[in-house]
Amino acid sequence: MHQRNERLINAKINQYLVPGIMMALSLQLGNILDTIMVGNFLGTDAMTAVALSIPVETIIQMPGYCLGTGGALAAGVMLGRREREKASGVFTLTFFTVLISSVLFSVLAFFVTDPLAQMLAAKAGVAELTGDYIFVSMLGAPFIGIGLLMVSYLGAENHPELSSAYLIISNVINLFLDFIFLKYTPLGTKGAALSTILGYAVGMVVFLKYIHSPKRMIGFVKAPPFALMKEAVVMGAPVFVFMAMSFVKALGLNTIIVSLTGQDGMAIYTVCDNILMIVEMLSGGIIGIIPNMAGILYGEKDYYGIRVLCKRTLQYSFIVVFAAVVFIMIFTVQVTKLFGITEPVLQGEMVAALRIYIFSLPFYLWNKFLISYYESIEETAQASVITFLQNCLYILPAALLGILLGQALGGTGVNGLALAFICAEVLTAVSAYVYRKMKYKKSDFYILPAENDGVNLDFSVAASLDEAVKVPKEIMAFCEENGVLPNTANLAAMASEEMTVNIIKYGGKSAQWIDVNLSIEEEEMRLRIRDNGKPFNPAEYAFDGDGYEIHGIELVKRISSKIDYMRTMDMNNTVIAFARQEEKNGSKEV
Question: What is the 3-state secondary structure (H, E, C) of 306-337?
């Protein structure tokens, strides 16, 4: 018997990998270089002001990030289940909800900017600079919201390369304008915020290609049932918890650090946070593949594919983190100089704190992986708990205790703060393990059924005629082993041969491997064929006597009870159903 192999899934991982890394690279690198430019052109006060505005930035991004991620995950699962109309309904509802809420932020900018700036930055003495940054950011909220929403949907909808292209264009424009505004104009922190908004706005030209893409599976629909919004909200709940806790975390840490260590402590924390962004440029891009693929695989009940996806992304991510820890450990002084930190005492404190802080990164990566994975398989409670633990419950008391302990030992407290991040991430990982074991006592961290519903045959074949002729034989043998009537078994075997032969003949050079799954359930059998050939929908095919002569598909339509098709993960996914036959005595076969 043939066995299922990892080739198609690995090919898709590799296809999504570079755009994912480029997307994270452009996003995080933009933030890092933004901070570097502000620190070098405007000084430490301006860098502190931008850092203190993060809670407001989090709120501005929340609609686009939460509903974009939740909606894209929900749509991915729906596409995996071949529910295209529902996926389009979720997209429509989330798009207009984000647009309306973002416009509301723009209106509120004229009324709440000054009070927010005083609340966040008065103690640090940079309220005016913080207010300037917040005001422009709130005015540009619609561009931020729609941009973040579309990035999520593009990644889940066969266009990861467009997601990365959008963020690359946006951040290149942002950095170019940062240089112009900060160096040659008196705009100050307003210029830093304005360059970000203009980057998001101009980058939207990329969306035009998506609108006209033949691979596009979802779009706007009229009057979608509002009940579909629940799917996006539920799937986006962990992201909402993350954003809410990020707000609490940023506000709490800013208050603790400024109150106990002053502006120098805030500068050190800002650099540490940017080091985390550097690591996420690569590892975050790798883990970012999971939402784009795991939801669809889960909807298709391809649990084997999910395990392959997780194993590969973890391998790649931990290699990146190990390399980053070694690099930062060796070149710590050079890293601090990039952020304009040259004063000897402050630089010395920052170097020591950074070398402690970086050991939190492997645990941070593991926790982020779990959150991303559980979001994708509808385990939102699990993901939300980990998010709450990581971003609120542990880090705030750990930071307070770490600083106080460090000061009690005669230091400034910044080394204790760095150590607090390690403790918080370790406690989160341990608590997540305990919580999962309490809820799912006999499950590993995947929390997946051992098998799909019913009895399953799952194997892969090379896209060659020699291999294709073996497919019906394996279908027949498996059906016989599991008591399927010969007539039904023959229909499934015939359909499998016709579909695999057509893929080999007309799929093109990219069609190198074919995954076959046969699920035998009480009421029906389902044959799933997946290939990475040219886009082709057999459910819509009608023989017209010209072009392709795919007569076999007409036969498959006649002998099956239903045939569904969806282009997901840039692969053809065809599901053919066969009704189970009754035994002559009236009892169903087993």
Answer: HHHHHHHHHHHHHHHHHHHHHHHHHCHHHHHH
Record the tokens describing residue 63, joined without a space. Answer: 């609609």
pLDDT at 28: 64
Q: Divide the 590 residues of the chain into consecutive groups of 10 and give the mean pLDDT of each group.
A: 81 78 66 77 87 86 89 86 89 96 96 93 88 95 94 80 84 90 93 93 91 83 91 84 81 88 84 81 79 82 88 91 90 83 84 92 92 87 89 91 93 91 95 91 79 74 87 92 90 91 84 90 88 84 55 82 86 89 42
pLDDT at 310: 92
Distances (CA, A) of 400 to 88, 259, 426, 450: 46, 10, 17, 44
Distance CA 518, CA 4 (A): 12
Q: Which residues contact 299 (CB under 8 A, 6 or more apart)?
A: 76, 77, 78, 79, 80, 81
pLDDT at 453: 52
Distance CA 69, CA 16 (A): 17
CA 445 vs CA 301, 366, 392: distances in Å? 17, 12, 23
What is the residue whose two structure tokens read 């779009």? 219
What strands, in cross-sheet order, belong to the sheet with 455-462? Answer: 455-462, 513-520, 524-531, 571-579, 562-568
Give which of 71, 227, 214 is closest to 152, Cα–Cα.
71
Enter the tokens of residue 257.
């650090």
12-23: burial string, b at 16+ Cβ within 10 Å, e else: bbebbbebbbbb
- Helix, strand, coil percentages in the chain from 3-state DSSP, rounded to 5: 70, 5, 20
* Dist CA 298 CA 279 (whole Å): 28
Contact of 19 with 319, CB cutoff 8 Å: no
Between CA 97 and CA 110 the distance in angstroms is 22
Q: Which whole-number Å values give the CA distances from 583 to 117, 485, 494, 590, in the listed order?
A: 76, 8, 21, 10
d(CA 33, CA 339): 9
Report DSSP letters for 35-81, one per residue: HHHHHHHT-HHHHHHHHHTHHHHHHHHHHHHHHHHHHHHHHHHHHHT
Return d(Cα 375, Cα 367) in angstroms, integer: 12
Give the whole-angstrom CA distance, residue 144 versus residue 105.
11
Contacts of 213 (CB under 8 A, 6+ apart): 158, 159
Instruction: At 462, give phi and psi (nearest 5°).
Output: -70, 150
With contact defined as beta carbons under 8 Å apart, do 106 and 142 qualify? yes
Helices (H) and strands (E) in the chain, counts: 23, 5
For residue 531, the SS3 value is: strand
Q: Is residue 286 within a helix (H) or strand (E), and if so which, with residue range?
A: helix 237-287
CB-count exposure of residue 454 (10 Å: 0-12, 13-18, 19+): middle
